[in-house]
Fold this protein.
Amino acid sequence: MNTQEQIMDNLLNIDLEIIDAVRALHEGNWDSGTLKQQVGELLKFRDDMVEKLMSLKDDQGCGCGHDHG
């Protein structure tokens, strides 16, 4: 598994965690400060990983020889 695939796999796992936390918040009428904080931290971590993935994409390109930017 290359770096991009690993980051994409990690993003999927984070997305699933975010969904679980939001479901728990919804079931609890959005009352849990701890879960709200957890969602915020997961979203920040996810944003950082997306940034890293995009920087890798820019560095490596797709290899087709065309400029996709």
